[in-house]
Design goal:
mainly alpha; 2 domains; about 5% strand
């Protein structure tokens, strides 16, 4: 019994069964990888082109980024003081991506389109680097194609394409840095790995976790090159910190280090894991067990270390306001580990290994490949469903955008839950509600003046994303203080619009 149980949980044994049952040398397995890659290309193009036809992005953060960009271009301040400037918005992120977007905007490209183009370039580069990395590790284009195709089953990846986002550039620097750590054979290559890993932190500061893990890996397995990567990493970090401080002063560090830490919710963590980890459980399990129960030297694999760092960091989704972007690194590292197992042209095992093993032909063992297949297909369906739901909402809002815009005053900042709607109407948002409510809860911002202005009708109209007459739950509850929610509920005029948008007026 003990022997049988040991063989059941042994991933090497399971992978041998997988290889035997699916007969991975057969062309249809590689065909499946190509079909999955075609799905990735199709859904990303459909998603991106469809969004390009609308004046707003579905993501909450996309509208805020556009608001920050417009504010920077109009006032010259990217990180305004919430005390001195009276500005009710906070930029939690480093400036690198917004610098790139502003460069395109200064060339005459419409700001929202500029943001989408910069993000799209990041997506293309990420796909190219992952494909090259997988191929370089195994000299197998079938594995590379299949690995990339699995990204089509990732909601965090597909949802992040086509919008004005910063995460792709953050992940790009991390993946390129790890790829050079893995494949680089010279001190110069490892130096540039350090540069890229540091640059990823200037796209999004959360990338400091996988970048520091990369430094630990070099220290442990390639100590002779530790100096090179530290020189690149610390040198780039010092230059970046100095440049930000010289241009914007100390305010960015309050925005990025103090204001960004928020409240925490186990319920939110559970929901995020249910949405972005649970559907990938079969693939995540194969990734983990293929290392833990495989060859001991596999545990020194840089991809495995990258995967572990991404898994640990995914628990930071306990922070209120976290989203699918928190799982981008985890999904990318997973396809790096699993793709070669599933789609290598030569199969998982050599012919000699397969011949030397007596594999029991039980029905239970034959379930493994089908579980993996149904998981990928189910995730593909989920990706398409998420895209369709969000596109439908954006289309509904766009169709009635003129009526929604007519609720706002003719000029000046407007009170809206989603900054993207304000921008689509030619306004800036008066407040970014989630971050400011978080600061209020932490005692870093006094919300009383704003609450009084709303309750007294000093602000004539608010456009929100929920029915004010019903109990408020989820993300909406995190975006407004209780006095403001009460004012919304008691507003004498409440008008419903398509896409779940409501206008309340006093």
């Amino acid at each position: 019994m003990r022997h049988a149980l040991g063989r059941w949980i042994n991933a090497d044994f399971l992978l041998r069964i997988y290889a035997e049952d699916l007969r991975m040398n057969r062309p249809w397995v590689q065909l499946a990888g190509r079909v999955q890659l075609a799905w990735l290309i199709t859904i990303c193009l459909f998603w991106s082109i469809s969004l390009a036809l609308h004046p707003l992005d579905p993501g909450y953060t996309a509208g805020e980024l556009l608001d920050h960009l417009q504010g920077w271009m109009e006032t010259g301040k990217l990180y305004p003081s919430i005390e001195g400037d009276g500005t009710l918005r906070v930029l939690n992120y480093p400036p690198m991506v917004l610098v790139l977007v502003r460069f395109l905007a200064l060339l005459g490209i419409q700001p929202l389109l500029a943001g989408r183009l910069v993000n799209g370039l990041g997506v293309i580069l990420v796909v190219g680097v992952i494909g090259w990395w997988v191929q370089a590790r195994g000299r197998d284009w079938s594995a590379s194609i299949g690995s990339l195709g699995l990204l089509g089953a990732s909601v965090p990846f597909v949802y992040g394409t086509g919008q004005f986002r910063i995460e792709m550039w953050a992940v790009l620097g991390t993946v390129m840095g790890w790829a050079l750590v893995d494949r680089g054979r010279t001190g110069r290559a490892v130096f540039w790995a350090g540069v890229l890993l540091a640059m990823s932190c200037f796209a999004k500061q959360t990338q400091v976790v996988p970048s520091l893990v990369a430094l630990v890996w070099v220290w442990k397995y390639r100590p002779t090159e530790l100096r090179s990567i530290l020189f690149g990493y610390l040198g780039t970090g010092i230059v970046g910190v100095t440049a930000i401080t010289l241009v914007w002063g100390l305010e960015p560090w309050r925005h990025m280090l103090i204001y960004t830490t928020g409240t925490y919710s186990i319920m939110n963590l559970g929901w995020q894991f249910l949405s972005h980890v649970a559907p990938w459980t079969p693939l995540l399990s194969v990734a983990a067990y293929s290392v833990l129960r495989g060859r001991p030297e596999a545990r020194s694999d840089p991809v495995w270390w990258y995967w572990c760092s991404a898994l640990v960091w995914s628990f930071s989704a306990v922070r209120s306001g976290s989203s699918s972007a928190y799982f981008l690194d985890l999904h990318m590292a997973t396809v790096m580990l699993v793709g070669p197992v599933l789609f290598s042209a030569g199969g998982v095992l050599s012919g000699a290994d397969q011949a030397s093993l007596q594999i029991p032909k039980t029905r239970r063992h034959r379930l493994l490949p089908w579980i993996l297949a149904f998981q990928v297909i189910g995730a593909d369906i989920a990706v398409g469903t998420v895209a369709w739901i969000n596109l439908s909402r954006v289309s509904d809002i766009t169709e009635d955008l003129a009526s929604i815009c007519s609720e706002f005053p003719r000029s000046g900042p407007v009170l809206t839950e989603e900054a993207s709607i304000a921008q689509a109407c030619g306004h800036s948002a008066l407040i970014h509600p989630f971050i400011m409510t978080s600061l209020s809860q932490r005692g870093l911002w006094d919300a009383s003046d704003f609450e009084t202005a709303v309750a007294s009708g000093e602000i004539s109209t608010a456009v929100i994303g929920f029915d004010p007459r019903q109990p408020v739950t989820g993300a909406h509850l995190d975006r407004w203080t209780l006095p403001v929610l009460s004012a919304f509920r008691l507003a004498p005029k409440q008008t419903a619009y398509p896409g779940g948008v409501w206008a309340v007026s006093w």
